[in-house]
Design goal:
single chain; 7-stranded mixed beta sheet; 16 helices
């Protein structure tokens, strides 16, 4: 039977855009209070809460009249009271799953709260910019001072435990470090790992930006009034995810060290290229944080202005979070509650296959590469354990969960507007799959899919996530999949209302080629914004997608995010922006660029294709530009051609790489491969997109 193709493309992702928040000037900025909060406990053993009087130094207990005991909670009424609060909640990146869980429990429709990072959340609370409640780490000295100097007292209430953790690249031989040694590193006293028993390698001590939550904790918990060394600008990272990426890199990262929050690196961002350091001989874990053995423990806090009315919904939500029910929700979202909570797990609404250890695992697939995937296919309907897909001893579940978290949190990393795939498609925070999760597919070496059926507890429909298997972690991995590491960052907002993400490419063991490639890639991405034809097509697409394809979603989505699509074939890598055509499964190529991965130079992919292309097994689509009546804009539709021979004089104008399934029947997928797609113009003016099958 003739081979058919179902193209799997990451195209335009539609996300909800947030209203932009007002930024404070340097003269008058974020929040304040003085010194860490002292606490008082209720007679019932409730967790300590802390508030401050107008002087900023006299703790008082949280007013009891705002509390709502769990056994008397009227869910329906509580939802009504909170209905207008969700758009007035802000917070840090690490507390996004918490507010998502709260919204899932008590929100009736709409979107969960949007988070603008710790410093901007405090900033918005100070200015009263549509912000009444924030979930953050403790404020910095600067933020405390600003609030105090402007006579804006705060109520700062601990709601969950967490800890500051330090991470290094997996190739760093150091596994444990003392607090004094960290202090010496970040004060500039220790500059080489060999002073600590490591390699003769310069220490690259990455820092977060001033007033970020983790930077504040570094000063509070580690530096102890010792002056931080001034760091080069490229050692100062504004986004937590980016810090993890640079520490985890292949090139020049063995000497890197950084820090983050335990919850973030274990539940929201993970990969197999970093490890957490033990501090004073204690490994950071839920158990050591709960027991306070780990020395860098702290909390997440709910923060409101102290002059907030006593019956305000924000006070009621805060009080509920301190009840056993509230602490159970915190535990189910993956955070560490302030006190042990009985029956927080298992959740009776969750299938037991989703329960278990989501952090530690050990592969059982042997130590040698395999040539096929036949021995991990189902036998009599029973699949081998997931651990068989990974080398002996490899912590596969942490790697898989990290990859899924990366995908969930993809979206718009613009610090003013945080919107992700997870914001739209999750019903509750994803806490990870456990050891030997049974729902997976492996159909080709290097390609694993983790599958969530319709009844899964995390997503509002059946979902699947592609997990790449490289030859250093799996017997079924392929070496070429590990040659390139792709990162994404916010590039620009265009006039048509499109938010553009830019790609970065790291070629393993090729720092010079990587640098050359990224310089050209950056220039090409910036040039798209000045290309009138591309801007016109984007404008047409936005009009079409909002007025036609997304007619039922208008209240949910307000902007389009274009994520560059990366494909590799032989020694060539393409970066392509695609426009999805929702009427069928086809997509339209907006613009593409190709690189030689050996040199990092931009090349013409059409010139690198074989001269005698075989079209007999290709998927061929006719592209029509349809003018919409009275609108003055066009859209493209596709009609499939069953057989094709190029007309004399036809010209290949563009080519890019796609990932697609080769099948021998309808939805009978046999293999996944990446090969070129070409756009051809015939002498008649007809435009074709041709999906090839090239080895």
């Amino acid at each position: 039977m003739r081979k058919a193709l179902s193209v799997i493309l990451t195209a335009a992702i539609i996300i909800l855009a947030l209203a932009s928040c007002k930024k404070a000037n340097e003269e008058s900025v974020p929040p304040a209070i003085e010194s860490p909060p002292t606490s008082t406990s209720s007679e019932t053993g409730s967790p300590p809460t802390s508030t401050y009087s107008e002087t900023g130094n006299s703790p008082t207990s949280m007013p009891s009249e705002t509390e709502t005991p769990p056994d008397s909670l009227d869910i329906s009424r509580f939802k009504e009271e909170l209905a207008g609060l969700w758009s007035h909640i802000d917070g840090s990146t690490a507390t996004i799953p918490l507010t998502a869980a709260l919204h899932s429990a008590f929100g009736d429709g709409g979107s969960p709260p949007k988070h603008n990072t710790t410093s901007y959340a405090y900033d918005n609370l100070f200015w009263g910019v549509d912000t009444e409640l924030i979930f953050v780490t403790y404020p910095s000295e600067y933020e405390l001072e600003v609030f105090k100097n402007n006579d804006v007292p705060l109520m700062i209430v601990p709601i969950a435990k967490d800890a500051l953790v330090f991470l290094v690249n997996v190739e760093n031989k150091i596994n444990s470090i003392s607090l004094k040694q960290i202090q010496d590193i970040y004060s500039g006293k220790t500059v080489n790992w060999n002073a600590l028993g490591g390699y003769d390698e310069k220490i690259i001590a990455y820092q977060r930006t001033a007033n970020s939550g983790s930077q504040t904790l570094l000063k509070k918990l580690v530096m102890n009034n010792t002056q931080l060394a001034a760091s080069p600008s490229d050692w100062e990272i504004s986004e937590m995810g980016r810090l993890v990426e640079v520490v985890s890199g292949y090139d020049n990262s063995r000497g890197a060290i950084g820090y983050s929050m335990f919850y973030y690196v274990n539940n929201m961002y993970g990969n197999s290229r970093f490890k957490l350091l033990s501090i004073d001989g204690v490994k950071p874990s839920r158990e050591t944080i709960i027991s306070s053995e780990y020395p860098l423990g702290d909390n997440y806090y709910a923060v409101i202005r102290q002059d907030m009315p006593m019956n305000h919904p924000a006070r009621k939500l805060l009080s509920w979070l301190l009840t056993d029910e509230g602490q159970a929700l915190i535990a189910k979202a993956g955070y560490i509650p302030l006190r042990p909570i009985d029956s927080a797990w298992p959740d009776s609404t969750i299938d037991p296959i989703y329960l278990g250890d989501t952090d530690d695992s050990s592969g059982t697939g042997g130590k040698m590469l395999k040539t096929s995937v036949d021995d991990v296919q189902p036998v009599n309907g029973v699949r081998p354990p997931l651990s068989d897909l990974f080398f002996d001893g490899y912590n596969y579940v942490r790697y898989i969960n990290g990859k899924i978290m990366e995908e969930i949190n993809k979206g718009d990393p613009d610090e003013w507007r945080i919107g992700t795939w997870g914001d739209v498609h999750q019903t509750r925070p994803f806490i990870g799959i456990p050891n030997n999760y049974p729902n997976y597919e492996i159909s080709y070496r290097g390609y694993l899919w983790i599958v969530f059926p319709q009844s899964n507890p995390f997503f509002n429909y059946a979902a699947s996530f592609y997990i790449s298997l490289s030859s250093d972690i799996s017997p079924y991995g392929t070496e070429q999949l590990d040659e390139c590491k792709i990162t994404y960052e916010y590039a620009a907002s265009t006039k048509p209302g499109v938010k553009l993400l830019a790609a970065g490419v790291e070629l393993r063991d090729k720092p010079d080629a990587s640098k050359r490639l990224n310089e050209q890639l950056k220039a090409w991405t910036e040039s798209l914004l000045n290309n009138k034809e591309i801007m016109q097509r984007l404008n047409s697409y936005v009009i079409w997608s909002s007025d036609v394809a997304l007619d039922d979603w208008k209240e949910k989505y307000a902007a389009v995010t274009l994520i560059p699509y990366i494909g590799k074939w032989r020694d060539y890598l393409t970066v392509t922006y695609m426009l999805s055509v929702f009427e069928d499964e086809s997509s339209s190529m907006l613009s593409t660029i190709c690189f030689d991965i050996n040199t990092g130079d931009a090349v013409s992919l059409p010139e690198k294709l074989p001269a005698d292309l075989d079209y007999s097994e290709a998927d061929i689509y006719k592209v029509d530009k349809i003018m919409e009546a009275n609108e003055g804009w066009f859209r493209e539709t596709y009609g499939r051609l069953e057989a094709y021979t190029p007309a004399a004089g036809s010209v290949i104008t563009d080519a890019f790489m796609y990932v697609g399934w080769i099948s021998s029947g309808w939805k009978s997928y046999d293999a996944l491969m990446c090969t070129p797609c070409i756009r051809m113009i015939e002498p008649s003016g007809r435009i074709l997109e041709i999906y090839l099958f090239l080895e």
